[in-house]
Amino acid sequence: MANESFGNEGGTGSRNSRNTNFTSSVDLSTSLDSSVQTRIFKIIVIGDSNVGKTCLTFRFTGGSFPEKTEATIGVDFREKAVEIEGEKIKVQVWDTAGQERFRKSMVEHYYRNVHAVVFVYDVTKMASFQNLKTWIQECNGHRVSPTVPRVLVGNKCDLVSHIQVPSNTALKFADAHNMLLFETSAKDPKESQNVDSIFMCLACRLKAQKSLLYRDVEREDGRVRLSQETDVNKSNCPC
Ligand SMILES: Nc1nc2c(ncn2[C@@H]2O[C@H](COP(=O)(O)OP(=O)(O)OP(=O)(O)O)[C@@H](O)[C@H]2O)c(=O)[nH]1
Ligand SMILES: [Mg+2]
Predict the structure, then answer these.
(1) CA distance 35 to 141
(2) Which of 51, 126, 178, 188 could form a cystine bridge with 158, CB 3.0-4.6 A?
(3) Is the pLDDT score of 125 beyond 90?
(4) 3-state helix, strand, coil in the chain (%, to 5)
(5) H or E segment and range at residue 153
(6) Where is this region: Disordered (predicted)?
(7) Quick one: which ligand is closest to 99's CA?
């Protein structure tokens, strides 16, 4: 069962890839934990090194900002149990490496049977935004269906005086690629709910599928600007 290879349900479950024997893990294509009939959604987080992928995934699964991070090597798995409209779901987040040398042997694994993709850039680093095209190309090049939901995340919004990527520019890009846009900060505790919303939004979309195995996602275009508070606990679906 897939969940045995990953972190603790509901916790941060972080397992540094340095210690992860990836090849020994069980069938990652499984999207049902048969013992408890819990659906598992595999969401990968992609983007340049240093944009904050690890911090965002840590914020979502662990509820805090890590004091210190190191460049991710290979992949770190984190998992969180959520409940959407009465259904218990495991969101399995794959925190990928941004540095080419730490990811090249893993890329195939990232994209295999992925259910949703989170593209991250750093709002204070224009190059990380410009490189999104390359990340999207990589994703498309790995036979990820266009029906797999994707979202765009501009991180580090707390660094207000250093912002290089205007919101309008990011919105246009998101629109052009049929993605929702989230501008947020993994660091700012006030943004915690918005970070949750990124993953909850995807989980809601995936839940709406009749069957993940058939990947019959109905495309839903649009975007979300999360400058205002979104209460995921109340609505459970921020989009
Ligand atoms: N100010 C600020 N700093 C952040 C934020 N998110 C991450 N950082 C910092 O950015 C640096 C990189 O964060 P990581 O999460 O390790 O970046 P990454 O994208 O996982 O990098 P790779 O693993 O190399 O791909 C760290 O020093 C974090 O503390 C944020 O929202 N605001
Ligand atoms: Mg990382």
Answers:
(1) 34
(2) 188
(3) yes
(4) 35, 20, 45
(5) strand 150-155
(6) 1-20
(7) 1
**What is the residue-wise DSSP string for 38-94?**
EEEEEEEEEESTTSSHHHHHHHHHHSS--S------SEEEEEEEEEETTEEEEEEEE
Alpha-carbon span 202 to 170, nearest angstrom: 19
Helical residues (DSSP H) of the chain, grouped into ranges: 53-62, 100-103, 107-111, 126-130, 132-141, 167-176, 192-207, 232-235
Global pTM reads 0.81
Number of alpha helices (DSSP H) and beta strands (DSSP E) in the chain: 8, 7
ipTM of the complex: 1.00
Residue 29: pLDDT band (50, 70, 90) is very low
Q: Ligand 1, closest atom to CA 185?
A: 31
Pick the atom of ligand 1 nearest to 159's CA.
1
Domains detected in the chain: 39-215 (3.40.50.300)
Q: What is the pLDDT of residues 44-93, one digit of tens each?
A: 999 999 999 999 999 999 999 999 999 999 999 999 999 998 889 999 99
Q: Pocket of ligand 1, candidates 50, 60, 64: which has the most ligand atoms within 8 Å of its Cβ, to mutate?
A: 50
Ligand 1, atom 8: closest residue by C-alpha: 52
CA-nearest of 211, 214, 207 to 145 is: 214
CA-to-CA dists, residue 113 to 29, 66, 92, 110, angstroms: 6, 29, 12, 8
